[in-house]
Automatic annotation (TrEMBL):
<keyword id="KW-0456">Lyase</keyword>
<dbReference type="InterPro" id="IPR024652">
    <property type="entry name" value="Trichodiene_synth"/>
</dbReference>
<dbReference type="Pfam" id="PF06330">
    <property type="entry name" value="TRI5"/>
</dbReference>
<protein>
    <submittedName>
        <fullName>Terpene cyclase</fullName>
    </submittedName>
</protein>
<dbReference type="GO" id="GO:0016838">
    <property type="term" value="F:carbon-oxygen lyase activity, acting on phosphates"/>
</dbReference>
<comment type="similarity">
    <text>Belongs to the trichodiene synthase family.</text>
</comment>
<dbReference type="InterPro" id="IPR008949">
    <property type="entry name" value="Isoprenoid_synthase_dom_sf"/>
</dbReference>
Length: 279
């Protein structure tokens, strides 16, 4: 298991996020579920985006924590199904946590430039819509004639762009002229890496509707081959991003990549400690 010194992480992010959460109307979401979402969000902010100012880490942590109840349907499927329409029309949401998410999206220009803020909002709204759509239609098989749909769907339910844009915050990187070219590749990397690092826990749960199993079915390959193809794609995304980025923009990307991988090892949600530390 990769080593990582948690003492290098700032406690300030956690303190600020928990202090803010004390002011929330959580609408009946259990304290245990909320605490789990907050801790995951805090790790996302301070591990993955450790190169950013603390203020940006806090906002990313809060946004992540507010998306978890959507992913786990803690705020009610009927309420989540109304989110997109209500967000676009500016109407109040049907659950207080969804109101908090809508409000948080309005704060994205605080730490990224307007182009990135638009991408974060779009990605998050698409994430909510895809969660509802997938719950409505169920596990529909993907046609062999539509392999592109796998990544189309994955980029949306993986909320990838929302984590690619903040790598280069507007304070340290006021111009997107270079790193903008690396955003699509980074979004691909986020999906591929998450699929690889989530695969163990999903296998334990017997899940077969994930990207890797779907890729195997559509391509006519084994699950093992699909897993290795996904690893190859992740490595390719890393290599291409490194060809695009230079200087501080490259350093920011490297810090993000290292942190994104380590986040999966540090977070109990992915059960990787059990895999690598089993006797």
């Amino acid at each position: 298991m990769p080593s990582f010194d948690r003492s290098l992480l700032s406690d300030e992010v956690g303190k600020l996020v928990h202090a803010e959460a004390q002011t929330w109307n959580t609408g009946g979401v259990s304290p245990a579920r909320l605490h789990s979402a907050l801790e995951l969000g805090i790790d996302m902010g301070r591990v993955v985006f450790k190169h950013l100012p603390v203020t940006a880490q806090v906002r990313i942590a809060v946004r992540t924590a507010l998306c978890i109840p959507v992913d786990d349907f803690d705020t009610g499927l009927e309420n989540i199904a109304e989110f997109v329409d209500r967000f676009h029309s500016g109407r109040p949401q049907l659950h207080p946590m969804l109101d908090l998410l809508a409000q948080e999206l309005g704060r994205t220009p605080e730490y990224v430039h307007s182009y990135g803020a638009a991408g974060i909002v779009t990605s998050t709204v698409q994430f909510v819509a895809s969660e509802v759509m997938e719950r409505d239609v169920g596990a529909q098989p993907v046609s062999e004639a539509a392999p592109e749909f796998l990544m189309y769907r994955r980029l949306r339910n993986g909320i990838a762009d929302a984590y690619a844009y903040p790598i280069w915050d507007k304070t340290q990187f006021p111009s997107p002229s270079v790193h903008i070219q690396a955003v699509p590749i980074t979004s691909d990397f986020i999906c591929y890496a998450n699929d690889l690092l989530s695969f163990y826990k999903e296998e334990l749960a017997g899940e077969t509707g994930n990207f890797i199993h779907s890729r195997a079915r559509v391509s006519g390959k084994s699950v093992e081959d699909a897993l290795m193809n996904t690893l190859d794609d992740a490595v390719d995304a890393v290599n291409r991003a490194r060809k695009i980025l230079r200087g501080d923009e490259r350093q920011a990307w490297e810090s993000f990549m290292e942190g994104y991988v380590m986040f999966h090892f540090l977070t109990p949600r992915y059960k990787l400690e059990k895999l690598f530390c089993s006797e």
